[in-house]
């Protein structure tokens, strides 16, 4: 790391101008909780770090207006835990934040950093996918919005250009007969990367029996890539809530997962856990909504 | 490569420092300011042994660049030695034999002090969460949890 340079831009526009020209060998650093260990392990070796951690006035906020929740990319996980917004139908964010790293990590780790790391170890990605979140990417030339599900294109690969910075995560909170829930399995409760984490957002029709829509997302769907379980979600849509529906959805989920083994757990074990979690999440949500018991 | 001049308030004193881009907060605290209560364990944010307070928030000093601390306030155990809550917490750790090898003790004390500040009478569950980012490989967690509970409760009287 001896040749590493650090660029501390004066403001966001300065940062964007810098990466417009030198983005290829640069890495944008916020808190560094993921970037610095990866540099230390020589998994990445940028020649310059562009430090955006001080732009908290522009990029650290939690807002709700006109039915949309907007999170600045520099919002920390502790900010999420301390926000009164994430209760009720949005308690999924609180649940995931409580199981995220440990206090020292939560105090600095950012929402934007978690998403841009784009790995199966990033607990917030399935949560925001289940919520149908979109991302605002900014560059010196303008801005664009992209659904999170299209943003992650591979293991630690995103649709972001070297000249772009993630500025905001936004989503519409679930409305009507809906609920959200989250489950995470690790070797211990805290300070652990997940073997499986799974998030669900489900909405029932007015009859409280028929599934209007369901979004299940996992930290791994194919290989080590976090994604929505698209086939499972398609299957669930329009079905009546029942043990039989859940049992069939579990089979669909198992068939669409293509999981590899590593020291944390085997692919087979992960697939088993993902199915158990699907039922657990579904039952928790339906109970909260007041559907079939 | 030019060094960068920064000023960090460490334990109440403004320190003008010269740092290289890759220097982490822990490097500056240990090597330039000789604050050896800050231990280096895993260097990857997995063990929490390097925990300090930055602007009053507990952080891992191995995961923060020194340059990112320019103009900020850093507190290590050395800066809290005369603090009444820290003195009570240390007394409680001693009384409960909460230090075995002692390597995690400074970080445990920092996390415990941070907890005591916010909750004068924490539940065991709250204590477990507060120290969850710090690994004790002697696994003397019960003694530590007892110590934190007593250290916090004494603070209430």
Tell me what you see in this structure.
The complex is a heterodimer of chains A (293) and B (157). In chain A, the strands form 4 sheets. In chain A, strands 4-5-10-6-7 form a 5-stranded antiparallel sheet. A 4-stranded antiparallel sheet of chain A has the order 11-12-13-14, with helices on both faces. Chain A is an alpha+beta fold and 293 residues long. Chain A contains 12 helices and 14 strands. The longest helix of chain A has 23 residues. Chain A is globular and about 60 Å long. Chain B has 157 residues and is α+β, with helices and mostly antiparallel strands. Chain B contains 5 helices and 5 strands, in the order E-E-H-E-E-E-H-H-H-H. A 5-stranded mixed sheet of chain B has the order 2-1-5-3-4, with helices on both faces. In chain B, strand 1 and strand 2 form a beta hairpin. Chain B starts with a strand and ends with a helix. Chains A and B meet through helix 2 and helix 6 of A and strand 4 and helix 4 of B.
- Global geometry of chain A: globular
SS elements, strand count of chain B:
5
What's the average pLDDT of chain B?
95
State the end-to-end distance of chain A.
58 Å
Q: Uncertain segments of chain A of ≥5 residues (pLDDT<50)?
A: none
Strand numbers in spatial order across the main sheet of chain B: 2-1-5-3-4
Rounded to an integer, what's the Rg of chain A over CA atoms?
A: 19 Å
Secondary-structure class of chain A: alpha+beta
Tally of individual helices of chain B: 5
Strand percentage of chain A, roughly? 25-35%
Q: What amount of the residues of chain B lies in strands?
A: 15-25%
Described by its quaternary structure, the protein is heterodimer
């Amino acid at each position: 790391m001896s040749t590493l340079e650090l660029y501390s831009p004066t403001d966001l526009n300065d940062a964007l101008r810098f990466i417009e020209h030198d983005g290829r060998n640069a890495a944008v650093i916020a808190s560094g909780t993921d970037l610095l260990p990866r540099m230390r392990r020589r998994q990445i070796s940028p020649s310059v770090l562009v430090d955006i951690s001080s732009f908290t006035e522009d990029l650290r906020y939690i807002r709700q207006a006109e039915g949309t929740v907007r999170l600045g990319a520099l919002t920390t996980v502790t900010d999420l835990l301390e926000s009164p917004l994430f209760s009720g139908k949005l308690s999924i964010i609180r649940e995931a934040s409580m199981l995220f790293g440990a206090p020292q990590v939560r105090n600095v780790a950012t929402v934007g950093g978690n998403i841009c790391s784009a790995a199966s170890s990033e607990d917030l990605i399935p949560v925001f996918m289940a919520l149908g979140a979109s991302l605002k990417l900014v560059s010196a030339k303008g801005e664009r919005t992209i659904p999170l599900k299209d943003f992650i294109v591979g293991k630690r690969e995103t649709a972001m250009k070297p000249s772009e910075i993630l500025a905001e995560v936004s989503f519409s909170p679930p409305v009507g007969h809906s609920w959200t829930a989250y489950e995470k399995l690790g070797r211990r409760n805290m300070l652990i990367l997940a073997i499986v984490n799974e998030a669900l957002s489900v909405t029932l029709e007015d009859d409280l029996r028929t599934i209007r829509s369901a979004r299940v997302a996992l930290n791994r769907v194919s290989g080590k890539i976090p994604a929505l379980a698209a086939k499972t979600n398609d299957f669930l849509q329009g079905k009546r809530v029942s043990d039989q529906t859940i049992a069939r959805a579990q089979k669909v989920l198992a068939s669409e997962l293509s999981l590899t083994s590593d020291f944390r757990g085997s692919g087979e074990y992960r697939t088993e856990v993902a199915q158990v979690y699907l039922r657990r999440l579904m039952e928790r949500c339906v109970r909260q909504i007041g559907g079939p018991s | 490569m030019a060094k960068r001049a920064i000023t960090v308030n460490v334990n109440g004193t403004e320190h003008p420092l010269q740092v290289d881009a890759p220097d982490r907060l822990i490097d500056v605290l240990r090597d330039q300011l000789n604050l050896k209560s800050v231990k280096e364990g895993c260097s990857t944010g997995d063990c929490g042994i390097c925990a300090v307070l930055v602007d009053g928030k507990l952080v891992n000093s191995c995961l923060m660049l020194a340059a990112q601390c320019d103009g900020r306030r850093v507190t290590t155990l050395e800066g809290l030695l005369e603090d009444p809550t820290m003195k009570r917490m240390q007394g409680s750790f001693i009384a409960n034999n909460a230090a075995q090898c002692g390597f995690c003790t400074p970080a445990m004390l920092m996390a415990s002090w941070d907890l005591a500040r916010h909750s004068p009478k924490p539940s065991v569950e709250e204590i477990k969460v507060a120290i969850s980012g710090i690994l004790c490989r002697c696994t003397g967690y019960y003694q530590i949890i007892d110590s934190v509970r007593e250290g916090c409760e004494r603070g209430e009287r």
